[in-house]
C-alpha cells in the first residue's frame, strides 16, 4: 500500500512538472482598457470603428485609422499587435506599408515595427478583419483591439467592432 502511494505521488509530481515545463511562454500583450492611450504620446482622431453588420460571404473588411504624434519629439513605435488572429494591421511608413502585424503566438514570432513618427507627423494604420477566420462558429458580435506600443512602453489602443452573419 505504501509503495502504491509513493508511486502515485511520484507520477503526480512528474505530470505537474511536465505541464509546467511545457506551458507556452507568455507574450506581453496589453489587455483591453489597460494603459490605452493614457499618457501615450500618440493620438488618433478615431479610436473605435464599428463595421456594423458584415457577411462572411463578402470576405475581409478594412479600416484606416490616422495616428498622429502631437509632441515635439520623435516617437518610435516598437510594436503593433492585435488581440486575435482574425485581425491584422499594417503601418504606413516612408517605404510603403509595414506588416502584417498580428496576434503574438500565431504564425511565428511577432515582427517589431520600429517605425519612427516624427514630431507633428501622422501615419495610417490599416486594420484588416477576416470574418471567416473562425469558421461557421464565428458569427455574432466581435470586438477586436490593435495595440501600438512606443519605446517608452506606452500603448495606444484602437478598436474595431462588427456583427458577423453567415
Characterization of this structure:
- The protein has a single domain (42-165), classed as Immunoglobulin-like.
- The chain has 1 helix and 10 strands.
- It has one helix at residues 2-22, and strands at 42-44, 48-55, 61-69, 75-82, 87-93, 96-101, 115-117, 122-129, 140-150, 155-165.
- The strands form 2 sheets. A 5-stranded antiparallel sheet has the order 1-3-8-5-6, with no helix packed on it.
Q: What's the CATH topology name? A: Immunoglobulin-like
Please write the CATH class name: Mainly Beta
Characterize the overall form. Answer: flat
Oligomer: single chain
Unreliable residue stretches: 23-28, 32-37
Q: What is the radius of gyration? A: 21 Å
Q: How would you describe this structure in keywords?
A:
mainly beta, five-stranded antiparallel beta sheet, flat, Immunoglobulin-like, 10 strands, five-stranded mixed beta sheet, 166 residues
Short structural summary:
With 166 residues, this protein is mainly beta. Helices cover 13% and strands 45% of the residues. It has a single domain (42-165), classed as Immunoglobulins (Immunoglobulin-like).
Topology:
Elements: H1 2-22, E1 42-44, E2 48-55, E3 61-69, E4 75-82, E5 87-93, E6 96-101, E7 115-117, E8 122-129, E9 140-150, E10 155-165
Parallel strand pairs: 2-10
Antiparallel strand pairs: 1-3, 3-8, 4-7, 4-9, 5-6, 5-8, 9-10
Amino acid at each position: 500500500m505504501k509503495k502504491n502511494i509513493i508511486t502515485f505521488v511520484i507520477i503526480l509530481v512528474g505530470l505537474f512538472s511536465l505541464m509546467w515545463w511545457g506551458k507556452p511562454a507568455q507574450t506581453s500583450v496589453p489587455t483591453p482598457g489597460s494603459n490605452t492611450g493614457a499618457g501615450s504620446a500618440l493620438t488618433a482622431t478615431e479610436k473605435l470603428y464599428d463595421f456594423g453588420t458584415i457577411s462572411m460571404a463578402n470576405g475581409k473588411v478594412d479600416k484606416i485609422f490616422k495616428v498622429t504624434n502631437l509632441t515635439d519629439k520623435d516617437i518610435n513605435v516598437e510594436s503593433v499587435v492585435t488581440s486575435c488572429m482574425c485581425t491584422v494591421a499594417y503601418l504606413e511608413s516612408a517605404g510603403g506599408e509595414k506588416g502584417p502585424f498580428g496576434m503574438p503566438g500565431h504564425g511565428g514570432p511577432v515582427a517589431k515595427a520600429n517605425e519612427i513618427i516624427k514630431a507633428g507627423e501622422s501615419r495610417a494604420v490599416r486594420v484588416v478583419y477576416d470574418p471567416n477566420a473562425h469558421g461557421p462558429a464565428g458569427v455574432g458580435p466581435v470586438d477586436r483591439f490593435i495595440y501600438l506600443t512606443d519605446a517608452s512602453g506606452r500603448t495606444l489602443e484602437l478598436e474595431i467592432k462588427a456583427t458577423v452573419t453567415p
